[in-house]
Specification:
heterotrimer, A mainly alpha, B alpha/beta, C mainly alpha, A: mainly alpha, two-stranded parallel sheet, 3 strands, B: Rossmann fold, 3 domains, 12% strand
Chain lengths: 310, 393, 114
């Protein structure tokens, strides 16, 4: 049952991009069903279709003296970063790019979001998006370090930064079993970097949509799609890092990987609906004084186990 | 053209509606919200998101001006309606969706808006004055301010980018769009920081009807604010309120706070109770769900943490809700609604007069960050209970 | 190895571009609407882009300390099993020192502002 991961031909990258898009779409459909009133859940699943049609038909907007370049880069950057993240994500047994530092690649892409979300907020030259952009930076200061240390736990256990090695290292025992803290912190961070509740303060209703407040038409579509794509890819990484990737009985690896990812993605979407939004300030002390030491202890525990095993 | 009409049909299956409530039209707004849930439509957070601008009640004066300016910000396809009675709601929303689907009319509407944003004349004088005000804070002299004003005038005649650039070259300091730059002022900690003017209301989601809070902000902290009610003060008539009106009002307020706090699921359940009471269902039936909501509220650690200490009214204040914070007021509303559903009547507290409320608001808001301000404003009951029209459908 | 990433980048950029082209065909108008910022129905008095008071700036400094530390953390993660207990002790003494700084900053109120 060895989960040998092999790098596939670059041509498959096109398929990978489509897969990310499809997963984002699935997430949006689940979200639509959850949002619909009871009794109209099935119709709610079509929400992303209606939303896509609506935003494609809607006119774009620009603002007086907007910083258009930064704005558009920020807007289009979200889906781009989500797809680039997926480059090192083993989809069952296949991966587009088997970088020896795959984990660092993921981290680098996720840090790009700092700039992109801020640019999407700064660009329009309007008060609400501006405040939203800066709110995201405050959130990022809180979630990024616990996220980075949560990432190192599987890397220490596998003795490698290569995603394929990390998946292979979970043969027999998934990392989630002995790294529950790192797993929970990672899942929370996925919600945070994909701008979902409880970490949606940058897009909150109290800012009239924050970073989204001035975007319409295809710009808004890209932001929303990017957000769902980030959640989908983030769930995929949680599966690869902690839930054994594509390992599982009988079915082919890619089916297992897909099933786990979609399940985790749906769970995160359900969780986010039942949590209130957290103000960045309220998160800051909790992240630095609780989540960060807890994650460090987790990494320490993993390191001790690894060294003891020799 | 089959494809584009198909697109239009799919697009209008889930319209986003920006609601504007005129003071005194709460029951119409609630009916619109009820209809939106029924249709599976969405309440918009901003004009950029909205397809439909739905004005609940007939606005006039400054409120009408604000609505008109927001209407100009809808990207289009767009439709606008004014709903005065609850019976019109379904028909009007349906009509809006119809208009959104008309490709020719929407294209023509879009083509008619290719100029720079036009400004109603009455506002122009206003903002000219304000420009001067802004300059006083800054390092710029009055001459610049005047140039800014002239540039402003240029723009109204629909000059494109070129006109603006010329304006910029004439001046020492370019002011794109005829809008001034931020002035500076000392903040609470004595730092010299840029100050922006941010008016909150009247057109803002989950915001009390007709309230305008003119804030000066530094970063996301409100430095100072003045409160004003457009369309005068609503007539307080607490004695006219029966138990049903009381429950509808309280659950509406609670739903608004929950919505702003981001508790979507809880807010939806609260609004469902409100809609049931509004539709004339037996009040006893509301009791069970209300109790469940109260229990769920008290279990929610995150929500309590986010509302505790927000908008605390000093215990020495003679305000009816002295000594409470947003969390206490929220749970108090739901508890009151439970009692009303039980048939007990609360002693109707005399609502504070508007000047008292305004002074309290201004005092509470100063020095708070924007998210807390939104929550604290939502956690104050500014419009006393009237009798909402109970719908017989 | 990086070719896959380049193809992926090209694919997503082409998709985003195609979406923009598509929207030009499907939207009610090709050119964007020039609007004023949403300010509850009022006209802006000044440009929103200004020196923003990011009140969390003390945290940024703290973050920087840890972020630089990540530079050591990743290579360390890859080799710790080979280097043995010494590496674990060294790293966590270092992290312990940094955490002491965090708790000090916490006590000083760096994580609170309002």
């Amino acid at each position: 049952m060895s989960a040998g991961v092999e790098q596939v031909s670059p041509v498959w990258a096109v398929v990978a991009a489509i897969a990310v898009l499809a997963a984002a779409f699935a997430g949006a459909a689940v979200d639509g069903a959850l949002q619909a009133r009871p009794g109209a859940r099935r119709a709610g699943m079509l929400a992303p279709v209606a939303e896509g049609a609506r935003l494609l038909r809607q006119r774009r907007r620009t603002l007086v003296a907007a910083d258009t370049l930064l704005w558009r880069v920020g807007v289009a950057g979200l889906p781009v970063v989500a797809v680039l993240m997926a480059a090192v994500l083993p989809f069952g047994r296949w991966v587009i790019s088997d970088l020896p530092v795959g984990l660092v690649w993921f981290n680098a892409m996720d840090v790009m979001l700092w700039a992109l979300v801020w640019m999407a907020g700064w660009g329009p030259n309007a008060a609400y998006p501006l405040v939203g952009g800066y709110r995201f930076l405050a959130l990022a200061l809180a979630y990024e370090l616990p996220l980075m240390f949560a990432l190192t736990a599987p890397a220490v256990a596998a003795g490698s930064l290569r995603m394929a090695d990390i998946v292979a290292g979970q043969d027999g025992l998934w990392y989630v079993v002995w790294m529950p803290v790192a797993f929970l912190v990672f899942c929370a961070s996925v919600l945070a970097f994909s701008l979902h509740r409880p970490f949606d303060a940058p897009l909150a209703r109290d800012l009239a949509g924050g970073v989204l407040a001035e975007a319409s038409g295809v710009d808004r579509l890209l932001l929303l799609a990017g957000r769902h794509a980030l959640l989908a890819v983030g769930s995929g990484f949680a599966v690869a890092l902690f839930l054994g990737g594509g390992s599982g009985p009988l079915l082919p690896a890619w089916v297992w990987f897909l099933a786990k990812t979609l399940l985790l993605q749906s769970v995160l979407l359900v969780v986010r609906r039942h949590l209130p939004s957290v103000r960045p300030q309220a998160l800051m002390a909790a992240a630095w004084a609780v989540a960060l030491p807890a994650t460090l202890l987790q990494v320490a525990g993993v390191a001790v186990v690894v060294v003891a095993r020799g | 053209m089959g494809l584009s009409s198909l697109l239009a049909r799919v697009a209008t299956s889930r319209c986003h509606v920006l609601l504007v409530e005129v003071p005194g039209a709460a029951s119409v707004r609630m009916e619109v919200q009820r209809e939106l849930v029924r249709l599976g439509w969405v309440e918009a957070d901003s004009p950029s998101e909205a397809d439909i601008l739905c004005v609940c009640g007939a606005p006039s004066g400054e409120l009408l001006g604000a609505v008109d300016r927001v209407w100009e910000q809808l990207p289009g396809p767009r439709a606008r309606t004014t709903v005065v009675t609850a019976e019109q709601v379904a028909r009007e929303l349906h009509g809006c969706a119809e208009r959104l689907r008309e490709p020719a009319a929407q294209t023509a509407d879009a083509a008619g808006r290719d100029q720079r944003p036009a400004e109603p004349d009455d506002q122009m004088d206003d903002s000219d004055d304000m420009n001067h005000g802004g300059m006083d804070h800054g390092d710029m002299d009055h001459g610049d301010g005047n140039h800014g004003g002239m540039d402003h005038g240029d723009m109204d005649h629909g000059d494109g980018d070129d006109g603006m650039d010329h304006g910029g070259m004439d001046m020492d300091m370019p002011m794109p769009g005829g809008i001034g730059l931020a002035g500076q002022e000392e903040d609470r900690d004595g730092l010299d920081l840029d100050v922006l003017h941010l008016p909150l209301g009247p057109v803002l989601p989950s915001w009390p009807a007709g309230l305008v809070l003119r804030c000066t902000i530094q970063g996301d902290v409100i430095f100072s604010a003045t409160a004003e009610l457009l369309e005068g003060t609503p007539a307080p008539d607490p004695l006219a309120a029966d138990a049903r009106a009381f429950i509808v009002h309280r659950t509406d307020l609670a739903g608004r706070v929950l919505r702003l706090a981001g508790s979507d699921a809880a807010a939806e359940r609260m609004y469902r109770i409100r809609n049931a009471a509004l539709a004339g269902e037996p009040l006893g039936d509301c009791r069970g769900p209300l109790m469940a909501e109260l229990a769920a509220l008290k279990r929610s650690v995150l929500l309590r943490r986010s509302l505790r200490g927000v908008g605390t009214i000093g215990a020495d204040s003679f305000h009816a809700e002295a000594g409470t914070d947003a969390w206490a007021r929220l749970t108090g509303w739901v508890e009151g609604a439970v009692r009303a559903a039980n048939g007990e009547t609360d002693a109707a507290g005399v609502p504070a007069s508007w000047p008292v409320q305004a002074a309290l608001l201004e005092q509470l808001v100063a020095g708070e960050e924007l998210s807390r301000v939104r929550l604290l404003v939502a956690s104050l009951d500014l419009a006393p209970v009237g009798t909402p029209e109970v719908l017989s459908r | 190895m990086y070719l896959g990433i380049l193809v992926l980048l090209a694919a997503v950029l082409v998709s985003v571009g195609a979406l923009y082209v598509l929207s030009r065909l499907t939207a009610v108008a090709r050119n964007p609407l020039v609007s004023r910022p949403f300010l509850s129905g009022w006209v802006p008095e000044e440009h929103a882009l200004s020196r923003y008071h990011a009140r969390y700036y003390p945290v940024t400094l703290l973050f920087l300390a840890f972020d630089v530390e990540m530079l050591f953390m990743y290579p360390w993660a890859a080799v710790v099993s080979r280097l043995g207990p010494g590496a674990v002790i060294e790293m966590f003494v270092f992290l312990g020192v940094l955490m002491a700084g965090v708790f000090w900053a916490w006590r000083e109120g760096a994580f609170k502002w309002a």
